Amino acid sequence: MFAEIITIGDEILIGQVVDTNSAYIGKALNSIGVSVYQITSVQDDKEHILKSLKEAEENADIIILTGGLGPTKDDITKHTICEYFDDTLIQNDDILTHVEALFKKYISTPIMEVNRKQAMVPSKAKVLMNQNGTAPGMWIEKENKVFISMPGVPYEMKGLMEYEVLPKLQKKYKFPFILHRTILTYGAGESIIADRVEDWENNLPHFIKLAYLPSLGKVRLRLSAKGDNKKIIKDEVERQVSLLHELIGDIIIGYEEENSIEVTIGKLLEEKRQTIATAESCTGGKIAEQFTANAGASVYFKGSIVSYATEAKIDVLKIPEDVIKKHSVVSIEVAEAMANNVKQLFKTDYAIATTGNAGPTKGDSDVEVGTVCIAIATPNGVVSDVYNMGNHRTKVINKTMNKSFEILLKEILKN
Amino acid sequence: MFAEIITIGDEILIGQVVDTNSAYIGKALNSIGVSVYQITSVQDDKEHILKSLKEAEENADIIILTGGLGPTKDDITKHTICEYFDDTLIQNDDILTHVEALFKKYISTPIMEVNRKQAMVPSKAKVLMNQNGTAPGMWIEKENKVFISMPGVPYEMKGLMEYEVLPKLQKKYKFPFILHRTILTYGAGESIIADRVEDWENNLPHFIKLAYLPSLGKVRLRLSAKGDNKKIIKDEVERQVSLLHELIGDIIIGYEEENSIEVTIGKLLEEKRQTIATAESCTGGKIAEQFTANAGASVYFKGSIVSYATEAKIDVLKIPEDVIKKHSVVSIEVAEAMANNVKQLFKTDYAIATTGNAGPTKGDSDVEVGTVCIAIATPNGVVSDVYNMGNHRTKVINKTMNKSFEILLKEILKN
Predict the structure, then answer these.
(1) Which of B77, B119, B268, B374 has the fewest CB atoms inside 10 Å of its own CB, making it the most exposed?
(2) Going from the N-terminus, what domains does chain B have, and what CATH number goes with each?
(3) Contact B287/A284, CB-based, under 8 Å?
(4) Do A214 and B153 touch (CB under 8 A)?
């Protein structure tokens, strides 16, 4: 059974906004056994939306639309849906009550007519309650197909997917089991890997597909399997992963789980009742922000000092000025002092420290753009190293963050 | 004249990868006057790619494909293009030389047969040299339409767009002028804005479209205009923006050129030779990270203390314990003390402080989830207020960040 995702909005087509909704929806659908046939991004234009609905109905059984449900004139999805299903808008009293309550709670100005219109829905639609906003989701069945419309605001869409769409789809259909397993490799290009696994790849069962996802310095290998028997799928994928280990175990460094690495770190720290703080220069708070984006982080994450300016390293982090003068602000010595001092200040078990030059100019040090020192303070001392993270600012920051998490995780697992 | 973008790859449909290429291509095409009709993401499947090529040829004059050009078995774009154009692959000697040179320079292992195959291209294709990788871009004309195929690796695609595709398109076609102007507003919802600008919106000339882009605490208004006469377009858009200023000047805080609000703040601080630091609890470093994401931030951004744990507020930020006990950790009093103390510690002119409960549970305070106190320390004192930012973690964090920037900007403009 296939789904098609239609995202509505000129902002996507002119490149003002990156469509992150589709990836979220694709992943969520896969998790309950629904494959996505196609993602189509279309203009805020009635004829275009009608055409895409017609094509999607030919391609797929589940058609998911996002966007165009706001209260302003450029939001035309509801009227277009009415036209497609030869329907009219009627008032839904539950939605009206919900909209009025939201206004009362969060908005100081009185409710207006356009806001009340959010409660108008096609008569054929079942309403999906949007806890995070005024625009309701809609569910319309036609023969054995279902059309689902959701607002494009990501957190509103996510709430609807989790609490309404996925449970309702699982109730209505019986889906097969889909399993993706992604193996991370470092140190060999995709053509070399393909050469080493050629026989294995040719002998994969028909229900397992292999994909190569290369990116600077690493290649992810994804096995995707689909079938009705969960146990057979799981066992066979595991067997194939073992065979792969025999062939290229030397370059495999792990798996891509659902959990990001900072969540894994957080869970381990929580189990061990240990804590962490960060001292960040070139990452500028990015590492702290990644930790605190997760609910419950306060159990293990104590805080951070972003010592962006050199004075801040001296005044706030208490790095001796002569250490900075002697070794330069981007040095192993300064990184280690940052890690040790922040660990002491926040009284934690671990600390991450980063100092480097993210570019594009040299800044407070003479080191080459892309040079970064990372130090990890642990209950047993401090480990540190210097890296060249390339020459693009965002890349340097993100690579430094990832490398810090990688080293930290190894250290936590050791202790 | 319309373009259609087709992105090829199962990784997009299963949500493993967010398609950022299409936004980049959409923006680049708009900059030379080409509108994108549709973005279509399809599977690594020959029949599906053929179908999407046929549909795109009906919709558009310029068809841009990305993905599926690697050396491994799941990369089928080249063969599919051959089938679509009834063509065969032939060896291109320039590409072969290029691939061999790349191997010699960057890769320690010897070149293999699959790598040499990168030099095989459809005989009808003009080759677009990819300076950043082994897979060449391809340009195939059919009647007055053009099909362009590029690798999906973002920096390879970007190089090809900039140095090959855009110049070639501008040479081949005469495009109209497209202008997008995005006005940033803070502090009013989209329905309130729509109400205030209703007459103006109804009287916009036909060649200017208005879009509302709401997100947590701010609404962006985008005017999009298209026409042959650049001067008329520019003048009329500026005239409409002036009219808009008369109507809602009180909530307009600037424009989105490439600039976000933190960049505007950074520029102002740099001009005035003033500096800022942040003390962040519920935002967890997010505000610091936004500042430091911009090159040159070190001129005005000194650093941050992320005092996530209550102990950190006492030990590191030196908030008196009795103030916290008396007023609770989420209080105006604590926020103001955080702002004042971090301003003093980092010796800055301004400081932002946030303390609140981002949820989902109550944490170290008794306040309701979503309650946030923001304080802004300025050269003339400190301003602060308490807000209800809703009940979703990411939303609370982002709304708090946006509200902080909004108040800070107003304060900087006052001083």
Answers:
(1) B268
(2) 2-172 (3.40.980.10), 178-256 (3.30.70.2860), 261-414 (3.90.950.20)
(3) no
(4) yes
Tally helices (H) and strands (E) across chain A.
17, 17
Give the range among A179-193, A238-252, A292-306, B218-232 with minimum mean pLDDT.
A179-193
CB-CB under 8 Å, A194 with B114? yes
Substitution target in B27, B38, B72, B100 with the highest count of A β-carbons within 10 Å is: B72
pLDDT at B400: 95
Helices A393-414 and A261-272, packing angle to 10 deg: 30
* Ranges A154-158, B57-61, B129-133, most confident: B57-61
Taking the CA of residue B314 and the nearest CA in chain A, the distance in Å comes to: 10
Residue B309 Cα distances to A287, A404, B280, angstroms = 16, 22, 10
Residues in Cβ contact with B155 at an 8 Å cutoff, skipping those fewer than 6 apart: B132
**A171 exposure class (CB count in 10 Å sphere: 0-12, 13-18, 19+):** exposed
B113 has a pLDDT exceeding 90: no
Beta-strand runs (E) in A285-398: 301-307, 350-356, 371-378, 381-388
Residue B258 has pLDDT above 60, yes or no: no
Helix (H) or strand (E) holding A25: helix A21-31
Closest CB to A106: pick one of B17, B75, B390: B390
User: How many whole angstroms separate alpha carbon B102 and alpha carbon B94?
Assistant: 12
* Tokens 């490149």 sit on residue: A15
In chain B, residues with a C-beta closer than 8 Å to the C-beta of A192 are: 109, 112
Q: Do A303 and B289 touch (CB under 8 A)?
A: no
A17: closest chain B residue by CA: B23
- Flag whether pLDDT at A381 surpasses 70: yes
What's the whole-number mean pLDDT along residues A206-234? 87
Contacts of A301 in chain B (CB under 8 A): 284, 308-309
B62 - beta bridge partners?
A: B3, B146
Chain A to chain B, count of Cβ pairs less than 8 Å apart? Answer: 339
pLDDT over 60 at A192, yes or no: yes
DSSP B164: I
Mean pLDDT of chain A: 91
Do the Cβ atoms of A303 and B304 come within 8 Å? no
Alpha-carbon gap: B85 to the closest alpha carbon of chain A (Å)? 23
Which chain B residues touch A43 with a CB distance below 8 Å?
Answer: 37-38
- The residue of chain A nearest to residue B395, with distances taken between CA atoms, is A155
Query: Which alpha helices (H) appear in A32-174, and where do they start and end?
Result: 46-59, 77-84, 93-106, 113-116, 154-160, 166-172
Is residue A265 exposed (0-12), middle (13-18) or buried (19+ Cβ within 10 Å)?
Answer: buried
Q: How far is B48 from chain A (nearest CA, A)?
A: 9
Local structure of residue B368 (DSSP, 8 states): P
Q: Which residues pair with B276 in a beta bridge?
A: B301, B350
Pick among B64, B306, B385 to test the A interface (most A CBs inside 10 A): B306
- Inter-chain contact B39–A36, Cβ cutoff 8 Å? no
Q: CA torsion, points B115, B116, B121, B123, in degrees to nearest 10?
A: -170
Give tens-digit pLDDT for A323-367: 999 999 999 999 999 999 999 999 999 999 999 998 877 666 678
Give the residue from A249, A317, A247 showing the smallest Cα distance to A279. Answer: A317
Partner-chain contact A306 B297, CB within 8 Å: no
The CA distances from residue A336 to A378, A384, B116, B214, in Å, are 11, 7, 47, 44
Contacts of A283 in chain B (CB under 8 A): 289, 292
Task: For the beta carbon of residue A379, count every other beta carbon within 10 angstroms.
Answer: 12
What are the structure tokens assigned to A90, written together? 């009627």
